[in-house]
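Lay summary

Proteins are chains of building blocks that fold into shapes. Our project writes down both the chain and a compact code for its shape. Here are two examples, one after the other.
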Amino acid sequence: MYGFNNGQSQYQNQQMNPNMMYQQPMGQMGQMNPNMMYQQPMGQMNPNMMYQQPMGQMGQMGQMNQMGQMGQMNQMYQQQSYGGNQMQMNMQNQNMMGQMGMQQPINQSQIDADAAALRKAMKGLGTDEKAIIQIVANRTNLQRQAMIPSYQRQFNRDLIKDLKSELSGKFEDSIIALFDDPITYDCKSIFHAMKGAGTNEDTLIEILSTRPNYYINQIKQKYQMLYNKSLEQRLNQELSGDLKKVMLTLISGRRGENQMPNQNDCMNKAQQLYKAGEGKVGTNEEIFYQILTMSSPAELALINQCYMQIGKGNNLLKAIDKEFSGNMKKLLQTVVYSSINPSEYFATRINYAVKGKGTKDTLLIRIIVTRDEIDMPMIKNAYLRLYGKDLVQVIQKETSGDYKKLLVELVSH
């Protein structure tokens, strides 16, 4: 289970505001609070930021050595969004993002200097892990990718091979993940989720339920290129029943992208959902599948608001909790939650990675790496609000060594 927190809505008796996102933390999956509300207004925070526009030839970034080209790609990278909508941040969040160490433009002389510093950190006896952390954790993904050809050109050596030979364990895993372009990294995560005996449905749900159409199409192309088999083929082999059907729908590239939903249309869909679930005996699953997997994030936010007016005070997450179970419940709740408030959703995933005995390091690494340049400050705020704990302190407690130092450096931006 993903493990969401309980919270009481402050808006139960107010008129429906289509732009108000929910303010309180989410309840345990089995004890979902029907009235939870999140914090960010729709007009200020875009669901699932990253990669709305084409990523360009990410696999060829190493060949883009001219500063103008790299700077243009870097600017595009920072403007892209996961949820299919352009990020609309208030001034406070703009300032916060601007203060992050991740907003530096590409400068080839600096890239060359970084590559040389990495070589120095790995040359001779011993490895200067501190120097590696300071460079890798404080550069953008595009800057890190540009270091690879620079390293090859200056030293006639493969940077990734050298890093793998010098590092080990979760520290190595994290560093290498940071050098992958985001699409390749997602493809690798998906591949390993279906490799060998059994399937890690949680990983598939987390990735494929939270990326927008264009990004999903890029994943499918890259997956075919890397593994010589289509993603659809692999999902057909690994999944079954309604979970397979809905997952294939999500990766079909037909999800809505409407950023200005119609209130009457959303109210009609909310009524359909109520009649298909809480308003009847049994559940018409197909109505839930169709509406939740084909609506845009903005539409889902408004549908959810409308549902609260007719669903006995419940919201969509509570309705899904009552009507579904297992992986299908996780899938549908992830679609809704990550659309309405992605930062809270990913905060809950981090909490799932660190709670209980042991730490789910692969999950922890994936969330921090994939959200590093998107909304990590907001995830930290959401984590504090949901769980009353500072995320940096939690990571310090749950990890150790250079692995800890790297994650702390990333989260502290």
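And here is the second example, written the same way.
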Amino acid sequence: MARTSPTPSARAELSKALRFAIVGGLATLVHLGVAMAALALGAGAFQGNALGFGVAFVAGLVGHFYFTFGLSNGFGRSAWRYGVIAFAGFAVNNGLLAALKTAKAIPDSAALAMAILVVSAGTFLAARFWGFVSHD
């Protein structure tokens, strides 16, 4: 059976998904790094998580707007929509963190890492199809 190559639109979507993963991965590392640094400096897990989220939000917003989705206008609208997506993810993230801390089965650092990493997976679709739509 002959192998077919992806259509141009499929290639474009794969390219966006790859760029999203790069920016999201970097933002996740920023979130995790800032949160872990705050934890090491004596902040609680929730305080570190909030600080890391704030810094990562800005990094993700700028990276996704310009690099992932290549937009040049509508930054305010995208920022608002991405904020909704990010804060919903942060709420889920904190719920998971609270559950993991309540269970006391793993150290705070592992609970924090798990909570941050789990939420990242679902944000691509929301960002792609609502948060960063073209505003032309």
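What can we say about the second shape? The helical segments are 8-40, 45-68, 75-103, 108-120, 123-131.
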